[in-house]
């Protein structure tokens, strides 16, 4: 939060809350809303919102805690059961230039009309789409790891699972918003992660269909277009990569660099380097640009994710980096099961 004082932050949260209350009381509900209204009144003294606000505040999600306390109807009045993904304070603090109506939509986009504790969320397959309170908008469970009990929604890590567990309300804390926050935005852009019929939101329970990755074609394209060292490196470890993929892939994204560090085919580091440059799903430049700040990208190394970084909401949706590296040649080659992007330099291996 930099040099801003605590009083500054409190005033910011209260101003946003008052703006939300004004928007909520002046705007009628959409006529074609697909959410069933309930008859239970929600007041600022509702024990549910008070207890949930207390739990949020104890985990330092003070902005959402305040909003839930003074304007709980945004989250709780539309469904008998609710799951809220609470955005961390630092991400919300940078939204003061955005209109209140958009911020209300942002919170609705992070609220599900169903009860989904972490135990149930981990049972759902990767790729499951979940309806939100924002009409015709869904979010996707983009990653699930039952062993470590970690999950991501729209490529954003759930950092505080089950922060609050009530009979009708569940709250999880997340590291950032599910959509990029850019200046002059007046609506949440439709994510390419969940492309369903615009007249309904669904929970997709079927596993994604695995495909056979055309590795030979990938290596040919790399070697004939100026990425010979990278192609040689990939070919050297390809058998091991294929053998180690216990879960069938639905697609891959190759982050190719023309100046791959010089490593012999026998070097154990070569295998680690190559896995770090291959994402475990097919993501075009448009897909990557639509992801929010701090979104995590799964590589073929299950223990080493990459991260989308933006300099702030002032940047355009096209301005981002992947773990400190720029995409200099997006969508160079693409097929149904792979896409190849050229990057500025080799992704560094994290230090042990």
Order of helices and strands: HHHHEHHEHEEEEEHHEHEHEEEEE
Task: Decide which structural class fits the backbone.
Answer: alpha+beta
Helical run tally: 11
Output mean pLDDT. Answer: 77
Q: Give the beta-strand count.
A: 14
- CA radius of gyration: 22 Å
Helix percentage range: 25-40%
State the low-pLDDT regions, or none: 23-45, 196-208, 313-317
Instruction: Outline the biggest β-sheet.
Output: 7 strands, mixed
Morphology call: elongated
**Residue share in β-strands:** 15-25%
Family: Belongs to the fasciclin-like AGP family.
Domain FAS1: 83-181, 253-351
Organism: Brassica carinata
Protein name: FAS1 domain-containing protein
Structure notes:
The protein is an alpha+beta fold and 352 residues long. It contains 11 helices and 14 strands. A 7-stranded mixed beta sheet has the order 2-1-7-6-5-4-3. Strands 9-8-14-13 form a 4-stranded mixed beta sheet. Strand 4 (138-145) and strand 5 form a beta hairpin. Helix 1 packs across helix 6. The chain is elongated.
């Amino acid at each position: 939060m930099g040099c801003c004082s605590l009083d500054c932050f409190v005033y910011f949260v209260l101003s946003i809350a008052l703006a939300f209350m004004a928007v909520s009381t002046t705007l009628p509900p959409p006529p074609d809303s697909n959410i069933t209204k309930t008859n239970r009144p929600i007041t600022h003294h509702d024990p549910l919102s008070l207890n949930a606000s207390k739990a949020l505040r104890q985990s330092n999600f003070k902005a959402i805690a305040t909003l839930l306390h003074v304007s709980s109807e945004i989250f709780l009045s539309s469904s008998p059961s609710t799951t809220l993904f609470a955005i961390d304070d630092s991400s919300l603090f940078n939204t003061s230039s955005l209109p209140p109506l958009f911020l209300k939509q942002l919170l609705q986009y992070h609220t599900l009309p169903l009860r989904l504790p972490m135990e149930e969320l981990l049972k759902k397959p990767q790729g499951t789409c979940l309806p939100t309170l924002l009409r015709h908008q869904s979010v996707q469970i983009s990653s699930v790891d039952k062993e470590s009990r970690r999950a991501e929604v729209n490529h954003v890590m759930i950092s505080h699972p089950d922060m609050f567990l009530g009979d009708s309300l569940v709250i999880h804390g997340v590291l950032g918003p599910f959509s990029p926050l850019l200046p002059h935005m007046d609506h949440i852009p439709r994510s390419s992660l969940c492309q369903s019929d615009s007249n309904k939101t669904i929970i997709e329970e079927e596993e994604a269909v695995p495909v056979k990755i055309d590795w030979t074609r990938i290596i040919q394209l790399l070697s004939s277009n100026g990425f010979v060292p990278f192609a040689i490196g990939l070919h050297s470890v390809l058998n091991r990569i294929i053998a180690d993929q216990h879960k069938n892939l639905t697609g891959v994204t190759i982050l190719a660099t023309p100046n791959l560090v010089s490593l012999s085919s026998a070097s154990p580091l070569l295998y680690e380097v190559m896995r770090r440059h291959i994402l475990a799903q097919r993501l075009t430049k448009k897909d990557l640009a639509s992801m929010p700040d701090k979104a995590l990208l799964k590589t073929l190394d299950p223990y080493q994710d990459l991260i989308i970084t933006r300099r702030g909401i002032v940047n355009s949706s096209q301005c981002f980096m992947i773990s400190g590296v720029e995409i200099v040649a997006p969508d160079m080659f693409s097929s149904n099961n792979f896409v190849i992007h050229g990057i500025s330099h080799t992704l560094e291996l994290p230090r042990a």
